[in-house]
Amino acid sequence: MAHCLGFAGFSNSGKTTLIAKLVVEMKHRGHRIAVMKHDAHGHYKEAQGADSTVFVETGADVVVTLSPNGVHIYEKTETPSLEEELAAYAHLDYIFIEGFKKEKHPKIGVYRTIEQRELLKGVAASLLAVATDLSILGDDFALPQFNLDDIRGIADFIEQYFMNCQF
Known about the structure:
The protein has helices at 15-28, 51-57, 82-88, 114-120, 151-164; strands at residues 3-8, 33-38, 62-67, 70-72, 94-98, 107-111, 127-132, 145-147. It is α/β, with parallel strands linked by helices. Strands 4-3-2-5-1-6-7-8 form an 8-stranded mixed beta sheet, with helices on both faces. The longest helix is centred in the first third of the chain and has 14 residues, at 15-28.
C-alpha cells in the first residue's frame, strides 16, 4: 500500500518546486513515486514548464492530474475521485498529492508569506509539518517546521513518519 502525503498551500507557495525536488530525492533513495495534482479550475495542459511536465521530467513514475472534466493520463471521467486514483497506484511506495487541501489525508503545509500561512490555518488539523522560506517562523501550528530548501530533512521526516505509522 502506497503512503499518501499531501502538500497544501496556495498559489505560488512553492508546492510544485518542493514536490519536484522531493521526487528526485526519494527516487535517489530507491522509492517509486506517483504525483497527483488537483486541477480544480480545469487549466490542465501538457507543456514545457507546466507542473505535470515538471513532475515527469524529475522522474515521477506516475503523474496524474485531476480536473473537473477528467483524469489526465489514462482515463476520462466527469467526476474524478481521489480515492479511486490512490487505489490504482497503491503498489507504489509514495503518492505525493498536490492540492486537495480539504481532503483528510496527512499533509505538509507550504507557504512563502504570512498571508499564505494564515490561510493554511483552515486545514491545520491535517498538517504533519510545514515548509517555508520565511526567516521568522512562528509556532502557530505547533508542528515540525522545515526550510523549503531542506529537501533531505523533509524526505527524512516523510520516511520516519510513515515508518512509525501503525496501519
